[in-house]
Hints:
The structure holds two protein chains of two kinds.
Chain A: H1 2-7, H2 11-46, H3 63-68, H4 72-104, H5 110-118, H6 125-135, H7 142-149, H8 159-162, H9 164-174, H10 177-188, H11 192-200, H12 205-232, H13 238-241, H14 264-274, H15 278-302
Helix pairs in contact in A: 2-15, 4-9, 4-10, 4-12, 10-12, 14-15
Chain B: H1 3-36, H2 40-43, H3 58-65, H4 69-100, H5 106-115, H6 121-134, H7 142-149, H8 153-164, H9 169-176, H10 181-192, H11 194-210, H12 213-218, H13 226-232, H14 243-276
Helix pairs in contact in B: 1-14, 3-14, 4-7, 4-8, 4-11, 8-11, 8-14, 9-10, 11-14
Amino acid sequence: MAGIARLGASPLERHKRVSFYIFLAPWIIGFLFLQVVPIAWGFVISLTNRSAFPVAIKFVGLKNYITLFQDADVLSSFWVSFVYTIFNTLIGVVTGFIFALLLDRELPGRGFFRTILYFPYMIPLVAVGWIFRIFLEKDTGFLNIMLVRLGILGSGVPWMQQSPMASILLLSFWQAGWSMIIFLGALSTVPKELYEVATIDGAGYGRRVRHIMLPLISPFIFFQLVMSFIYAMQAFIQPYIMNPRVIRGNWVMLNPPPNDTFFVMSRAYYIISGQHKFAYGMAMLWVLFAFVLVLTILFVKFGGFWVYTEADEKR
Amino acid sequence: MNVEARDRLSATLRFIALAIFVVAFFLPLVSMVVTSLKRMDELYRVPAHIFPEKPVWENYSLAWTLVNFGKYLLNSILLTILYAVPAIMSSCFAGYAFSRFQVRESKVFFLLVLSTLMIPVMVTIMPLYMVMSRVGFVNQRGLWFIWGISGIPFIIFLFRQFFSTIPASFEESARMDGAGRFRIFFMIMFPLVQTGVIVAGIFAFQWSWSEFLMPVLFLSDEKSTLAIKITMGYADQKENLLYNIGMAGIVYYTLPLVIIFFALQKRFVAGLLAGGLKG
């Protein structure tokens, strides 16, 4: 190892390197054991015909991957997840940004609003799913009751059955608190003098936002878009809980959601733990992994042209 | 219009907009509480009432007894501690390493930490499950400890920022006095990043409290968590879902997070704003 040779270079350098590895050791162990090994193993599995019972396993090469790209259900899942991801990301970023704009300047009850708007993000996703499932029910849901009472609707609308995707996307609004916090932090880094100078020069609010605020916080917006993309592609439990079909029995994971909202991860989970097609499911996960990786790299490389570059060192 | 009047108008308008958002955000929560206090037949009556005729507090005791809530609550708490403590410490260690001991390869390792953000959770969990069941290491709570020591990328980043704000002279004078690296870390550095510990703790708690995939794959029903029970939903013997009792269960399930969040929110939000972003 080259590091060993350099260890003796200078006592200070040596002490530094030893300390670095000592303090990073737990992370390295976890990384190897929980990331590197399983990922490699998963790839090997995806090249076999493995099912729940490890008998007569043989290598089948890329067969699973070829089948995958001819499987209409799987392809539809990728599309559904992609559409969900785009909308979820936009909703989260735009809502969070609006909240941050509203809260950026002095205002009575600012701390209260910030806390309350962040709060839904703290509620676990499985609970959120159930809360909204009941909130959106046709006759008994709170939303319909309110809308009918207010005379906006004549009778209850079956929201989840009519537009299952939109119903799931409603959660993205509710959980925009995270991106709000990111943007509040971002806005606090913008020097206030810049606004003052611009105001004196006669720039209105809209122009101050567009020409000063947005360029300066663009690295944060970029970061938020990337992270949100990565997370939304992994959404999997929402379609099961907010399944527009009648759920029977007390195990929601046994009822696969309809194709309109059958996300990639939801299907991968179903294929692996419901149908026990381990190898096929792993192949699917690997395609998703590659998809996320390639899109993220492309986005980071070419998608950032609008990001204000002077702030680049900050990232 | 003069500046002062315009500022007041702007504040008023923003206040109203925020108030509308807050009310809208609260509706699902109101719906949750109201539903948890209705009878099942009351839920399905048309035209529906907003509020229950008579609050059925019994739902809350049923939510507790119907699934042996106490047992799963204990399981959840146990796993949370088992995960949170090593997660906080390991992330803190790693953040310290990245902030204080920069050697040539530090950058590569930091990129590795960030790259783990890009790996879909299932890509690692599913094969891990297959490996683990092969070697017979399933249904072990110890796994949560190992998950803990692999840290949380965002928190590692956060701790790195926090440590970077502490002047190096603090450690140097301690080193002059002959203190070893662990002594310096625990006696001087660690107490100075309390806010980071609070943020990390809340994150770790939230993660382990809401995690679904890992307990469902790795733990038997005996060791399972509240997240699993809540996801299952409550049903009667004829397999009809009991929404009212289910909502009561969710109120219980969410309460610990709510309490911790509101107790620590000032420092939590301040910590996020101060450490995480001004990098």
